[in-house]
Amino acid sequence: MSEQQIIVYIEEAQLIAQKTNNYSLYLAKMVNNSFTAIWLAKPAKATTGQPSYQYKNTFDISSNSFMVNFTNSPIQQGDITFTSGGKNLPINTGQKTTLDEYGVFSPATNGGVSGDILINNQLLANPSEILLDSKGNSIWVNCSGGMSIGATTMTPKNQFQLWFGTAQAAGSLIAGNVSNSYVVTVNDGETKTITYNDSGVWVPGEPATRLTDDQITALHARVNKAVAMAA
Questions:
Q1: CB 129 within 8 A of CB 147
Q2: What pLDDT, in 10s, does the model give residues 17-37?
Q3: N or C: which end of the chain has fewer CB within 10 A?
Q4: Is the pTM of this model over 0.85?
Q5: Distance between CA atoms of 112 and 119, rounded to whole angstroms?
Q6: Confidence (pLDDT) at 77
Q7: d(Cα 173, Cα 83) in Å, to the nearest integer?
Q8: Is the pLDDT of residue 184 over 90?
Q9: Residue 65: pLDDT above 80?
Q10: Which of 147, 162, 161 is nearest to 14 (CA)?
Q11: Residues 88, 93, 99, 104: is their CA dihedral positive or negative?
């Protein structure tokens, strides 16, 4: 799979508004036609090892390989957190694995359907399957009742959802109050650019006015001052 990127520009008025609200910028990946978990997050304020969102933000979204796991925790509407029930298993699309009656995955093998990840579930009580990236970050969780005995398929898609929202950790379930989100398709080898403009509207492409490096530095200084004054 070739490199995929999403570049997000946030214009000044919305940088101030979102940071003043202490909202984070989130990205989710579609699996099985739904978005259920926060894959990547950029907070309003930088923390150790986690930079905040700024005027220009780049998400590296290449997924050359995945991991699977499961949770036995019942997932209900409004839940944010969940607990993994097993050990992450590295797997690629086109491969398959068996989750046995003791909650252990067999090694991934070829012979599945191209683009899909197949779990032959033998574990009772309808465990919910989890898809993770190769670093162990949760991408998607089945929030629709879990797995029955037999074959279950996860199909990662090239659609991604962006939105701002109250602070949550990456890997947690998407809160039910998402609004003003934007969905973009990014195929293999593509980079898509999106702007969240001063009016709070997602538009494809770069901002209408291109800023120099000095202008971007000055913009960040104004934003930081405005946010500090609003605190």
A1: yes
A2: 999 999 999 999 999 999 999
A3: C
A4: yes
A5: 10
A6: 54
A7: 11
A8: yes
A9: yes
A10: 162
A11: negative
* Per-residue pLDDT at 49 exceeds 60: yes
Q: State whether residue 216 is helix, strand or coil.
A: helix
**In the beta sheet, which residues pair with residue 57?**
8
**What stretch of H or E contains 119?**
strand 117-121
C-alpha dist (Å) from residue 62 to 4, 30, 56, 82, 128:
5, 13, 19, 25, 25
Tens of pLDDT, residue by residue over 66-124, are 999 999 887 765 566 777 889 999 999 999 999 999 999 999 999 999 999 999 999 99
Q: How far apart are the first and last CA of the chain?
A: 44
CA distance 153 to 135: 21
pLDDT in tens, 214-228: 999 999 999 999 999
In 3-state terms, the chain is what percent helix, strand and coil (to 5)? Answer: 10, 40, 50
Q: Give mean pLDDT, residues 177-189.
A: 94
Quote the DSSP letter at residue 73: S
- List the structure tokens of 143: 């929030």
